Amino acid sequence: MDFKTTITGDATELRLTGRLEFTDHDKLPDIVELLDQMAGTGRRRVVIDMSALEFIDSAGLGMLLILQEEAESREIKMVVSGPAGDVRRSIELARLSEIITIEP
Fold first, then answer.
1. How far apart are CA 77 and CA 56, in angstroms?
2. Which pLDDT tens digit goes with each residue over 14-72?
3. First to last CA, the chain
4. CA 31 to chain centre
5. Is there a contact between 51 and 17 (Cβ–Cβ < 8 Å)?
6. pTM greater than 0.85
7. What is the pLDDT of residue 76?
8. Residue among 71, 64, 16, 80 at smallest CA distance from 43
9. Cα separation of 82 and 71, whole Å?
10. Would you tell me how many other CB atoms lie within 10 Å of the CB of residue 63?
11. Residue 46: left (phi > 0), alpha (psi -120 to 50), or beta?
C-alpha cells in the first residue's frame, strides 16, 4: 500500500493505493505522526480515500480501527471515502460503519 497526503482547507486527505495488508503495518506510525502534526494546525478532519485501494485484509481493517482510535484521541474526525468492490464488502462484513464514518 502506498499513500499520498493532500491538505484541503480544514482537512487532510490520505489517498491509499494498492493493497492494505499485514505487511503494511510498518507504515502505520507514519500516518499516526501525520495525525500528531494535524493536531497542532487546527485541521480537525482526516479523509482516508480508498477509491484506488484494490484489496484489504483483516490486518488492514484492524489498522483502520487503530487509526480511528488515534484520530479520536486527538479530537480529529476520521472519514473513510470511496471504498469499492471487495474493499467495500470487507468493510461491510466487519461492520466497521458502526464505528467509522464511511462515505460513498
1. 22
2. 999 999 999 999 999 999 999 998 877 878 999 999 999 999 999 999 999 999 999 99
3. 21
4. 9
5. no
6. yes
7. 94
8. 71
9. 19
10. 21
11. beta
**All 3 cell numbers of residue 99?**
464505528
Whole-number Å distance between alpha carbons of 15 and 45 = 14
Contact 39, 74 (CB under 8 A): yes
Question: What pLDDT, on a 0 to 100 scale, did the predictor assign at position 39?
Answer: 78
| Residue where the block lists cell 464488502 | 89
pLDDT at 43: 85
In this prediction, residues 2-17 reach a mean pLDDT of 92
Q: Which amino acid is residue 104, in one-letter code?
A: P
Are 51 and 81 within 8 A, CB to CB?
A: yes
Quickly state the pLDDT bin for 104 (edges 50, 70, 90): confident
Nearest of 79, 15, 70 to residue 39 by alpha carbon: 70
Amino acid at 83: P
Residue type, 14: L
